[in-house]
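anyone seen this seq b4? input:
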Amino acid sequence: MSAAQTPRGPSSGRRFTAGIRTSDSDRRFLEALHQFIEREKKHLRCPEEGADELRYTVHRSAFNQVIGQVTAYKRLLVAIKLEYDDTIRELQRREEEARATRRTTAASESRLKSLLTCQRRAAHLRDRISSLQRETAELQEDIKREKTSKEQSTWMPGLTVAESENPEALERYLRDLEAQRGALLDRKSQCVPLEVKTKLDAELQAAEHRRDRLSAENDRLTVLYKRLKCVWDCLSSWEEEGQQVPLQELLGSTLENIRQADEMDEDTCGIKQLFEDQEPTGVDSSKLLADYLDRFLELFDSAQYEDAALIAARAPRGVLSNTDTMEMFKGVEGFQGLLPPPFLFFWALLFTASADAKLSAPLSLQGISCALQCGALQLVTYAVTQKKLTFSEDLGDILTEHAQKNPGVADLCLTLATIVYEACRLNRKVALSMCRRGLIHSAAEFLNHCEDLTAEDCMWVLCHSPSLSLLQLLTEPPQDGAAILSVGVACAVLLVDPQQQLLALQLLDSFMTRGREGLEEVIMGDCGASVDVWTDVVSLCSELKRDDLSRTVLSILLSQSGTRIVSPDPDGARLVEHIYL
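predicted toks r here
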């Protein structure tokens, strides 16, 4: 039968591609593989068309057999399989979302129909209200007696009597059951029967045995080819040189040279280099990768999560060191060990990574969150200080949030957050972390020496960590320049915010402790605020019933009418007395 013909009999549903030469062993393997697929589909009763989980499982098992059979393109097939699995998982996720949307729509329609039905029945129920009220009162008495005698009894597992009578509680209970059923179905779809796994293991061992046998045969043929090529070269040279040496003598010397070459150790290297272009590189690494994947899944399925985490962390090329693996560990339910599986995976990633390696940003966030939940601050400190993570603003925010919720470890977490913010050049959050640790003077000095920080950034820090000391340090001008914050602008902004009004008033009162002259000196030296800004301060102080401050500031402004410039801005220098009258 030619390669273009279509085979008949048990394999009549298959066609071999024309022009492709297929060995008998490959043809038998393909026929056995197709028979396996048809038998499994028939046994599992898979539909012939449309998406189906069982048919996908059967074809995935068949694909694994193909990968185990071939040697030349295993890496390509493994990559195709991984991409195919990712695509299937994405389609499954979208299908689950579509089903959830359809369920929500059906539930809404059901509620709407129920509402319309109730409205239609309301007209018929009005004449029965009196009798129903009496019956309702009797039923309520019965329910009270039943609750008194059976307070702890349940009608459904996990529901009390009161919850069993509450429609909303019953709906929540139904949603929980549906979610649990969906999770169980998802997990079931990822499993294969134990018989299939045993059969695949046996076939894999047989394939490895065949591969070893063929490899030995290939080495033997390689040596034979090399010997024949040597003889052929000698004969060709003998013929070209005019047959000056007798043929028998030439063959004798040639065979002796071949025998001596076989005894040399370098001959083995020469044989390997002779055919190194016939086999693609990376076969050993692909086999190693497959071994890691198989070992990881075996340990994970048997609940040996610590060993599985170490295997995943040590897998080559980071194929298992990703967020998908972390999600697998996070999806473990009912774990009874001391440390949760996600924490074990994060720990393994940290201590198996090379000195200059860093975890990806998503893995860093998930790992730090898990470590903080477990209270493993030493591990978090090690990861941050040794720069094992990819620093980001979100990572610093996680540490800051944990510090705010846990005052006992706030100083350590804020210190680590400061390291992260400094690495990301988030200077205003660096200053905010200092303020929350009580380092007010250090924060003020840091803000004054940061060239890329603006007055708005300083006000942001001040509003998130209100402090009179910080405000005084930021508004106090140095000897050789202007203050980073204008007193008038800062007070005008703070007085508008109801939560910061007291801070602004405290600053103005601190100037008033030195009398009117002290406040006047501040206002006249505040070159960053115009007359309009101080006018707003007067108005806001008056609204807050601080007439003493408003009158003092107004008096200072009026006393300087036309004689001095409060602001270097010509527009801000205009001082019109009648606007205050």
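Confidence is low (pLDDT under 50) at residues 1-19, 265-283, 562-581. Residues 74-125 form the longest helix (52 residues). kinda curious what u guys think
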